[in-house]
Design a protein that fits this description.
37% of the residues lie in helices and 28% in strands. With 308 residues, it is α/β, with parallel strands linked by helices. A six-stranded mixed beta sheet has the order 6-7-8-3-9-10, with helices on both faces. Keywords: ATP-binding, Nucleotide-binding, Transport.
Length: 308
């Protein structure tokens, strides 16, 4: 559904995108992760036909974003990281205006608007003015605006930016519902664990380059040559820390409350041997096992901390 080939974008002497290539199949949710200034918004702006690439090709639904912008705009719903709203309109009037802009007839607009307000959980705010809505409600209203013409593709640039925890959860649940409805979605965010839960595929971008791509666990396994062991015991924490730090295949060990976290680069057999030896030595173990890394671990592993 979305095809990007060798995408470059320069602003004067600044190179914002450096040969990005990616493919997003129909119905997939793709998470775009990267530090500020990495190139996420630039890429999404080109997809949304708001900016032309310096080189390369971007296609949405088979249409070229540069030469067939009108056709692309019919297919997409774009929610930028910051968008203006009309404070002197009610939520209903705001969506009615945008529905009319897409050519929806009055009777159809009314039906669609009521559906969108229900989807984004704003039915009770239909007649309230936009400037009276909370930030989270405005974000959800902006998502409803992007959906009013029933696009096949959603481009969501930091949709949860600046929201409180409850509002982020509400936004996440709406996006899950859209995923289940078969929409193709590309979503950027710094809220990394939520992307891991929502997305089929993750792409990590830094310095205008795609530095890693795949399912979260695939990226984690590829970038981590070691596994993380969580060892819980009743006492002897300091003794075990010293013991582990002098143990073959243990890269590092730190205490985390009642647990010891150990980076281990040995095999399954060597991990089993370690467990057996700790039991034989009388350490009062409560639990011993691997703990999964999360998307934040992957992000820190594959990026250098660049960006603005």
């Amino acid at each position: 559904m979305i095809e990007i080939k060798e995408l470059y974008k320069t602003f004067g002497r600044t190179v914002a995108l450096r040969g990005i290539t990616l493919n997003i199949p129909k119905g997939q949710v793709y998470g775009f992760v990267g530090p500020n200034g990495a190139g996420k918004t630039t890429t999404m702006s080109i997809m949304a036909t708001l900016m032309s690439p310096t080189a390369g090709e971007v296609r949405v639904g088979g249409y070229d974003c540069k030469t067939q912008a009108k056709e692309v705009r019919r297919l997409i719903g774009y929610m930028p990281d910051f968008f203006g709203v009309y404070d002197n309109l009610t939520a209903y009037e705001y969506l009615d205006f945008h529905g009319a802009s897409y050519g929806l007839q009055p009777q159809e607009r009314e039906r669609v608007i009521l559906q969108m307000l229900e989807l984004v959980q704003l039915t009770g705010k239909t007649n309230e003015y936009v400037d009276q809505l909370s930030r989270g409600m405005k974000q959800r209203l902006g998502l409803a605006r992007a959906l009013v013409h029933n696009p096949q593709v959603l481009i969501l640039d930091e949709p949860a930016s600046g929201l409180d925890p409850r509002a982020r959860i509400e936004m996440r649940e709406i996006i899950k519902a859209l995923r289940d409805a078969g929409k193709t979605i590309i979503i950027s965010s710094h809220i990394l664990p939520e992307l891991a839960e929502m997305c089929d595929t993750i792409g990590i971008i830094e310095g205008g380059e795609l530095v890693a791509e795949g399912k979260v666990q695939e990226i984690y396994e590829k970038m981590h040559a070691h596994r993380l062991l969580r060892i819980r015991l009743l006492d002897k924490h300091e003794t075990l820390l010293s013991r582990l730090r002098d143990t073959s295949h243990v890269i590092n060990a730190v205490q985390d409350g009642a647990d010891i976290m150990a980076s281990f680069n040995g095999s399954d057999a060597e991990q089993a041997t370690l467990l057996a030896s700790l039991l034989a030595e009388g350490y009062p173990l409560v639990s011993f096992g691997e703990t999964e890394g999360n998307l934040e671990d992957v992000f820190l592993e594959v990026t250098k901390g660049g960006g603005s």
